[in-house]
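Hi,

I'm pasting everything inline rather than attaching a file, because the server keeps stripping attachments. The sequence lines come first, and each chain or strand is labelled.
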Amino acid sequence: MKRLLSVTAVTAVAAACGLAGMFHSTCVVAQTTLNVVTAGDQNMVDYVNNFLGPRFEKLNPGVKVRAVGTGPGDAGSQKIQEKLEAQSKAGAAAWDVDVAVVHQRGAANMVKGNLLAAYRNDIAAGKLVSRDTAKNALGQNVDGYVLPMFHSQIALAYNSDLVKAPPKDYAQLADWTKKNPKQFGYNGVKGGMSGVGFVMGWVNANSSIGPKLETGPYDPAQKAQIEKALVSLKEFNKNVVLTPGNAGTLDMLNRGEIAMGPVWVDMFYTWMADGKMNPKVRLSLLSPGLPGQPMYYVVPAKAANAALAKKFVDFAESPEIQAEGIVKQFNWYPGIDPQYVQPKMDAASWNKLFTDIPPNDLSKYGRPFPLSEYFTDILESYEKVVTN
Amino acid sequence: MVETTLGPRLRGDDERGGGRVVSRRVREWQWIGLLLLAPALALIALLFMLPLGISIVTAFEAPGGGFTLAHFAKAWDFYHTDFWFTIGLTLLSTALIALGSIAIAGYLTLGENPAAQAVLRWLYRWPLFIPFIVTAQVMRGFLAKNGLMNHALIATGLIEPLQAQSFLDWRGIVIAFVWKQTPFVALMLAGAMASLDASTIEAARNLGARRLRTLIEIVLPQVMPSLLVGLILSFVTMLSVLSVPIMLSGDSPTMLTVDIAYRINSHRDYGVANALGTISCVMAGLVAWFYLRQGVAQARA
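And the predicted assembly:
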């Protein structure tokens, strides 16, 4: 049986080579496979498979980049964490994840669990990052362990045909929904992060503990403040539509069923570039802010191909790749300091990213998510106060 | 058969001896039979019974170990509305499925227009082959406020544009469930009706009973067990669907499956998720018990 299997395997390889040979004339077997595991939507896997992987393979003959997606939201990061934890507990000498792309909450938990390598100072691109998200993820010190792949931001999308002057802050928004019931839509807390982000922004704006939510220290007694802010959100919800998911909000904006709603900026621009978005829909930010977050490149503590993994991240963080891939093709804000990225690209592509939200507004109203303890408190209180 | 030609003494001997051989063989075969079953049984035990057992145990397990009802208390505190919502919605869908499948199977059995019957027979099974998630995706565009359904209704003048409303809430979930599960029950029911003794139907019709009355008073009582089994299986299936509520409705209350996914995905809270899972299991288990009882009663009959 064993022999039969190995014969089959050899035949299969030979057949595959034969097929490959028909197209490439030679059969080169890749010597090393770099496993890149990424949380997030399908566009993350697309980015590695279609953009980053082929370019890296070209520069490094004999290397094959294999990207695996683990699904959207914190759940995707959690799957990576559980996989690393399992290998760590099993005492495996080499883990089969070389590079992982994770959310802030995932990175914070993985640093806490000693699952990651401190690698930022080992690579040249480590000096190009400047935002404090490279050091701090939801209150957890992640300095050295992470490099932001990109930043994304939640913003208010509105149909400029129907809304001439979008609200500037949450109070104006609440007034607007009273005058225009069921014209504002968001996806609650169970349907994706754009809804979660809006709820976080609401609590930030409608409680006296705004700054504390972002910088700490954590104080469980603040739950009362959070619940008070959410009582007003329950009132607000009476005049709004709850949409099915991040894409659900964009869909409803497109079909003209709602006139306004919070969306991810990168998703919005990508849909716009693909012609899937009503061109009359524009973006703006609310005061005191809406949250945004980076995705991080991390290298597991016992990655099987650690050296190659660092080389891969260094390549991915280079200003050229950030300009061409992250900003131009995938519509994210750069992960490294913009001053290195802007000179590498044409003005039109750069400006496209800042047409509706100028850099000034972005730095003023683009907030981080609250500390993970407050984050959990807000989500739980939402279920207790708003949905019950 | 050869033994019958032999004398009584000899035959008796042979029967005893043969009986021993046969029973030994039967025992051997039983062993082999069990051995053959073992991989399947082991697979069920390892991949199904064990995880189910662990889930139920963790539903009662405190973070540091030890017994607790805290997960159930929290599950009830946060999600009791969703619990009632899930039961209500699934029961409503089951009732509508019953009506729909009786109508379809009844027409296939009692209808008098062969062409219409042929078209219906060809059409009604299609949703069976479409997965729930695809159903949800199709309904998402179909039932939206400015979706296909309202466009069609407006175009035909049945409603005014301002009357159009979104069905992407509990109504959407019910519509998706009914659309997807009615063919399943109708298939079972039509089969049962087709195998009925046609003379009872003919007798009723000869005595002047209208078709509806024949359906309700003659046909339905005879196929009731099949209908119940179909409905029970549908109920349990709908109870476990995640894709439909998650894709069709962002609204709350929502179904327990969404809450379970949310507790795990957003909070990594397996305790409350497993408590909710245990509650779902009990709901399905009660119905399964009814199903088994039905099966036993049928076997006796």
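The CA atoms of residues 254 and 278 of chain A lie 6 Å apart.

If the labels don't parse on your end, tell me and I'll reformat.
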